[in-house]
Amino acid sequence: MTNAIVIRQHGGPDVLGWEPVIVGPPGPGEALIRHTAIGLNFIDVYYRTGLYPAPLPLVPGMEGAGIVEAVGEDVTDIAPGDRVGYGQSPLGAYAERRLIPADKLIRLPDWIEDELAAAMLLQGLTAQYLLRQTHRVQPGDRILIHAAAGGVGLLASQWANVLGATVIGTVGTAEKAELARAHGCHHVIIYRGEDVVDRVREITDGQGVDVVYDGVGKDTFDLSLDCLRRRGLMVSFGNASGAVPPFDIGLLNRKGGLYLTRPSVQHYAGTREELLAMAEELFVMVRDGKVKVNINQRFALRDAAAAHRALESRGTTGATILLP
Predict the structure, then answer these.
(1) What's the rounded Cα separation, in Å, for the pair 123 and 137?
(2) For a disulfide at 228, which of 177, 189, 232, 306, Cβ 3.0-4.6 Å?
(3) Does domain 139-262 have CATH number 3.40.50.720?
(4) DSSP letters for 148-213
(5) Which residue, among 131, 122, 10, 118, has the nearest Cα to 65 in the 3D structure?
(6) What is the pLDDT along the chain (324 residues), one digit of tens a residue?
(7) What are the residue ranges of CATH 3.40.50.720 in the chain?
């Protein structure tokens, strides 16, 4: 018997219940892991509220780190005793122990502590595909990153800076602005007191940015389009403020022949080879000190509801982890 956070109905943080669950032995292609740390991400909120549908009851969470306790048949590259992490998996991370497809697990180098792995993998893999694949950032690019003081924002801002881009970030407070500047943003716009579109146009001499990375969704979608240069790319990768409502596709034409994409990690890490290559590039950036991961909040796993409240109120910065 083990304990987990279980959602039996969609709703607010109070639907996150702490319950005993039964975890059986691993089947073919599976591994049984004991978590030592679990990542908190906004996608967990989407499943809790029902924005992303999944059968109930469910155990949320898609990121974690721990020790392999057993493996099923046909598992050859992961063994009991291995320290592993994952940032792209089926739901089920909010648990003391869980079964997981072994091909989603990444063996951790000795220098990566479990808490760091749980804090960096989903957000780091997201930053990797955004900057290196969705739009391959080049020296001289001008980019806009919303929620620049959040987990993905801090990672992506640092990484884009290393790649030679001019990084513009949006944040909600002066404190978060300082944090964003310290992590790679050349220009920071406090959206509660400044007109984002006007400031972007000012910074870019009226041209607009090459690409917008928008994990906020509904509240920023329209202004993001207005920040783009002619034939610029809008990357909508999250819905922190809610889903983007339907819109007339002709709007992209009227605003300058814009491009729009809505990607996620699984579109880029669809094979084990792709996943390991993405993780290796992330690990190198962190190992070499080019990207620093900040764990700014820690909660006990059983207190996941409090963690969700903090995340949704925009009271967090950097990474947040849950500890079993």
Answers:
(1) 18
(2) 232
(3) yes
(4) TTBHHHHHHHHHHHHTT-EEEEEESSHHHHHHHHHTT-SEEEETTTS-HHHHHHHHTTTS-EEEEE
(5) 118
(6) 899 999 999 999 999 999 999 999 999 999 999 999 999 999 999 999 999 999 999 999 999 999 999 999 999 999 999 999 999 889 999 999 999 999 999 999 999 999 999 999 999 999 999 999 999 999 999 999 999 999 899 999 999 999 999 999 999 999 999 999 999 999 999 999 899 999 999 999 999 999 999 999 999 999 999 999 999 999 999 988 888 999 999 999 999 999 999 999 999 999 999 999 999 999 999 999 999 998 999 999 999 999 999 999 988 888 999 999
(7) 139-262
CATH class of this structure's domain 2-121+269-323: alpha beta
Residue type, 274: E
pTM: 0.92
